[in-house]
Design goal:
three-stranded antiparallel beta sheet; single chain; 352 residues; globular; 22% strand; Glucose Permease (Domain IIA); alpha+beta; 8 helices
């Protein structure tokens, strides 16, 4: 596992600490359209996206990924985010209208010589969806190196290969069972009435929790709502991943601290049921689960407070089951680690 200290990183308060005024703003003034969502903030007159409704289905994500990977090193190379942004603009963001034929038709036009600029000419909201979806998915696909089993000699050490494709991972380790449903926005009442701005993956206490995307630890420690929790920020600073209700007594991988650099696929902690208490290390959650949240940050003013943007990541977690990190327990330390190591070029300065 790769860890490196980054200085001057402030501790981020957990996802559940939205103020009541924030909830009132979201409930009373929901974004009616991308044109409203992209209005300039009053503080800096900069056109900053203020809200994102992300409902791209796992099926659409998977189809776009395949078209992207299959066309890698070809002309044209089909960019999966551009494909999804086109459909987002066409559907008005409503992917209940998604049909695989729509994406196939778009790919056929692009491979036939049409440009995305020409095809999106006159699409008022294409640029909005492109920026929004880039913020959501920007770190999930690309080049990377990873170990794979040695097919010639299964007893030999794994071999390194270079791949292009999905380099983000499911937040739950491979071979560990869990179940979930779309619970984004349901009511919560501990502390104050609010919405559930994340996704719960129900599992067994001690299940290894996996880093979805490479980044650095921005928050670690106790939060009365999230219990033992971790906040990991992507290197482009667009995404903040929130992992909460981690295991009592042993919530984190032992090497983690504020500022640690982690790679996608690393074990970062263990599923539990801590939280809903001002007293540290308290189990107050009835059913063991991982609360997984994903916050978008277009401007640092949106990081905390009334301007936070949390997206529904239910379909994303379904999509990420394509890539689950395999782990092994060290019987001496009782710590889990990934079996197959990775080298992610996204890490500033490279892998140390």
């Amino acid at each position: 596992m790769i860890f490196r200290k980054i200085n001057h990183i402030s501790l981020l308060i957990g996802t559940e600490l939205l103020t009541l005024s924030c909830l009132l703003i979201l409930l009373l003034c929901p974004p009616a359209s991308p044109s409203q969502s992209s209005k300039a903030s009053s503080s800096n007159a900069k056109k900053t996206i203020q809200w994102v409704d992300f409902d791209v289905t796992s099926e659409a994500l998977g189809q776009a990924l395949r078209l992207d990977v299959d066309s890698y090193k070809q002309t044209p190379h089909l960019n999966w985010i551009e494909l999804l942004a086109y459909l987002g603009a066409r559907y008005g963001g409503d992917f209940s209208r998604y049909r695989s034929k729509d994406m196939d038709d778009l790919a056929e036009k692009l491979t036939g010589g049409a440009s995305m600029e020409t095809l999106t000419d006159g699409m008022s909201y294409y640029s909005y969806y492109l920026e929004a979806y880039q913020a959501v998915l920007g770190g999930m696909v690309g080049l990377y190196e990873i170990q794979i089993p040695n097919e010639a000699d299964p007893n030999a050490a794994p071999v390194w290969v270079t791949k292009y494709g999905l380099k983000a991972f499911s937040p739950i380790a491979r071979h560990f069972p869990y179940h979930d449903f779309d619970d984004f926005g349901v009511a919560r009442s501990y502390g104050f009435r609010r919405q559930h701005l994340g996704h719960d993956l129900m599992g067994q206490v001690g299940t290894p929790v996996i880093c979805v995307e490479s980044g650095y630890v921005e928050a670690i420690g106790w939060n009365q709502y999230g219990g033992w929790r971790l906040g990991i920020r992507s290197f482009d600073k667009k995404r903040y991943y929130y992992y909460a209700h981690l295991r009592k007594n042993y919530p984190y991988h032992k090497s983690l601290q504020e500022g640690s650099v982690v790679q996608a696929g690393d074990v970062i902690g263990y599923l539990g049921r801590t939280g809903y208490s001002r007293t540290e290390n308290t189990n107050n959650i009835d059913d063991p689960h991982l609360h997984f949240g994903m916050q978008l940050i277009f401007d640092e003013s949106q990081k905390d407070g009334n301007h936070e943007i949390w997206i529904n990541c239910y379909e994303i977690t379904k999509f990420l089951t394509l890539n689950r990190s395999e782990t092994l327990k060290n019987q001496e330390t009782k710590e889990y680690d990934r079996i197959y190591q990775m080298k992610d070029p996204a890490i500033p300065g490279g892998v140390k």
